[in-house]
Amino acid sequence: MSCCGGKSLKSKFIDDENVDLSLLNDVLYEYRGIKGSLITILQHAQEIYGYLPLSVLDYIAKETGIKTSQVYGVATFYAQFRLSPVGENVIMLCKGTACHVNGADKIEEAIIEELNIHDGETTEDKLFTLNNVACLGCCSLSPVMMINGETYGSLTPQKTKKILRDIKSKSLAKEAD
Amino acid sequence: MKVVVGLGSCGIAAGANKVLNVLKEEIEGKGLDIDLKITGCVGSCHLEPIVDIYDDNGHLDRYVKVSSDKVLDLLDKAIRKEIDKSLIISNEDMESHKKQVRIATENCGYINPEDISDYIAVGGYEGLKKALNMTQEEVIEEVKIAGLRGRGGAGFPTWFKWNAAYREKATPKYMVCNADEGDPGAFMDRSVLEGDPHRVLEGMIIGGYAIGANVGIIYVRAEYPLAIKRLDIAIAQAREEGYLGKNILDSGFDFDIRIKAGAGAFVCGEETALIASLEGERGMPRLKPPFPAQKGFWGKPTNINNVETFANVPWIFRHGGIEYAKLGSEKSKGTKVFALTGKIKKGGLVEVPMGMPLREIIYDIGGGLQDDKKFKAVQMGGPSGGCIPAELIDTPIDYESVTKVGAIMGSGGMVVIDESACMVEMAKFFLSFTRKESCGKCIHCRIGTKRMLEILERMTEGKGKEGDIEILEQLAKDIQAGALCQLGITAPNPVLSMIKNFRSEFEAHIKDKKCPAHVCRNLITFEISDNCTGCTICARNCPVNAISGELKGKHTIDKELCTKCGKCHDVCRFNAVEIN
Q1: With respect to CATH, is domain A89-176 assigned 3.40.30.10?
Q2: Does domain A9-77 fall into CATH 2.60.120?
Q3: Are B355 and B397 in contact (CB under 8 A)?
Q4: Which string of DSSP letters, residue by residue, matches B100-117?
Q5: Option in A39, A43, A139 nearest B187 (CB)
Q6: Is A98 in contact with B224 (Cβ distance < 8 A)?
């Protein structure tokens, strides 16, 4: 097997032994025997664990009888599925056409400068994860980012940095409580 | 008095929820006799948050850009029967609204999408009642008379697809709604689902009846949580009222709809990939034939239409196919919704009759370009489409004319590009999207798009070579010939169309190592001119300390250190930082 440059495919996934697999049992029961439910099961699993740990994927394969390779295949195909944990605040930076035309690249640079993370990465303090997304559909407010469901529009690099600092101080204050 | 707050995704992004909460507290707190309602997106996204106030006679005053700190003042004035002149919509904005003809979005921004009685009050489900009194053939014939074509992109006649599925003997049959709107820069489907979900359900039920399906599935992007929520509510209400379920309106026809949330893959907009995804697999396209009408979901006859297509169907049955066919141009009937975005003054959703010249859409409805810059092109059809350059601005917008000038109608994304954009960089942007979204099944698409992207990247870095344009054109042909699905077949379109219309820009990048639009960083230098007053703001903002100079003295940029981030240019208040 040299198709992955000799690396084991498993290195892409995070194996967390502390995962409580029983949390998934209700979901597996609900979709038991309903064919074509794999994506839905994975979506529920991600809601429960925040990401898709390797042990959960293996557990789903075992319980549903779907081949492990197929479960991995689906989990790695779709943009929605995450294979590693995310930070407390997920920044969804819109890189759609309208945002691109209106300067989304400069917003990305500002985020990189402020937090030192690139697309898909999480800060060391686990406060922020940056995810570039294709389009948030708020084109008239471009450039746009969404953090924890809240949309921030008509961004400038300065405005972006201020928003991130505000969120950071709020998160830290919450921790201190 | 009735107060209605626009709660589409764009309105919420602009702060409409806060406005609604302030109103709610005030009205409940003071026990005011005011009916507070919500609605979807009216399309004028640049004016959000929008608050509509109806007096007791039903007269509407529309207020725009209503922030949460201004809304109480507005309410006070409305109660005193005064108009808040600072917030009332301008005549110009009202006019641009009047130029539109709204069918798919006729109720968006007017009715409460979470209340079926609002939909019924404006004639909702009347079309279904008529359709259920017709034979299946008659329903299909009515859609044929209307001349409705698929609004998802390709413009395939809807009646033809319905007829093909109807003629299949195998059962069960499936009616699928493609709500996997993936084009970055298009959001009309989301707006319709959020603003008028019952309309889509009604269209699906009529279609389901026509082809003989009892199951409907809406495949909707997981990125559209509000659309999913409102569809859920709508489906439950429709079941309760007997528009879904067993023996609909005593017709003997059974039909129910369920939602399937997609998981994020552009390729799933392709019919066969969508079916694979519905079956819980990787969304990879399959070979056609067999077409979905013959062997689709679980190998059974399946018909797939786009959200906007379904949204047109109830109108056709309420008013008749002949009325519908009166709108539009010879071969493209009815209206089309466009998401007008980019460097446009009044961005948002517009619905116009097919055949309206591009100029009218951009200048009369969209209000022209931001900062009155020069119009360069409009990108239609997103990463699968092409651009229409400034000299073709009088092109009528219908399927045939748009295809003729090298773009596609696509789902309706219309991104306006001004003179400040570099077309090589734009081509690179679209290709990087399709490269990323290629599912990897076909080698030509998987590797070809990567090679094309590499060539475009080196052009923008000043490393373009003689003959690169020709290689791009050849690779484009190969990908189009070797790809199975529309993602691959159309992926090279933006590049080809930009080469065709802006070849000199590509040549300037290769031969002169220059970017005429001053966008590509490796091909530009920053210099400080004599306009410099020595205010030091550039030096203080330079992230790499490449700018030096005394206070009140002219500054200079060390070109060795400069990373060309452009910050000095952006912060300078005296236009002293020049790009060469």
Answers
A1: yes
A2: no
A3: yes
A4: ---STTSSTTTS-TT-HH
A5: A139
A6: no
Asked if the Cβ–Cβ distance from B263 to A100 is below 8 Å, we say: no
A2 pLDDT tier (thresholds 50, 70, 90)? very low
Distance (Å, whole) CA A91 – CA A155? 13
Average pLDDT over every residue of B177-193: 90
Given the structure tokens 């399309």, which residue do they identify?
B43
The residue among A97, A133, A151, A163 with the most chain B CBs within 10 A of its CB, best to mutate, is A97
CA B331 to chain centre: 23
Please give the ipTM for the structure prediction.
Answer: 0.89
What mean pLDDT comes out for the span B369-388? 93
* A153 vs B14, B266, B341: nearest CB: B14
- Domain segments of chain B: what residues? 2-89, 116-325, 335-418, 423-512, 525-579
Whether the per-residue pLDDT at A89 is higher than 50: the answer is yes
The per-residue pLDDT for B384 is 92
Q: How far is B118 from chain A (nearest CA, A)?
A: 26
> Residue range B190-209: average pLDDT?
97
Considering only CB atoms, B280 lies closest to which of A38, A79, A98, namely A38
**Neighboring chain A residues of B566 at a CB cutoff of 8 Å:** 106
Worst-scoring range by mean pLDDT, A81-85, B249-253, B440-444? A81-85
Task: Judge whether B281 and A70 are in contact, CB under 8 Å.
Answer: yes
pLDDT tens per residue across span A4-17? 444 555 556 776 76
List for chain A the helix, strand, coil content (%; round to 5). 50, 10, 40
Closest approach of chain B CAs to the CA of A169, in angstroms?
A: 22
By CA distance, what is B224's nearest residue in A? A136
CATH architecture of B335-418: Roll (3.10)
CB contact under 8 A, A153 and B13: yes
pTM for the predicted model, two decimal places: 0.93
- Distance (Å, whole) CA B512 – CA B523: 9
What does the domain layout of chain A look like in residue ranges?
9-77, 89-176
For residue A45, list chain B residues with Cβ-Cβ distance below 8 A. none
Residue type, B143: V
A141–B413 CB contact, under 8 Å: no
Say yes or no for a CB contact (<8 Å) between A136 and B223.
yes
Q: Which chain B residues are Cβ-neighbours of A65 within 8 angstroms?
A: none
CATH 1.20.1440.230 fits B423-512, yes or no: yes
pLDDT at A55: 93
B386-389 β-sheet, strand order: B348-353, B335-342, B413-418, B375-380, B386-389
More confident residue, B42 or B445: B445
- pLDDT given at position A10: 57
Residue B1's pLDDT is: 92
For residue A133, the chain B residue with the least C-alpha distance is: B184
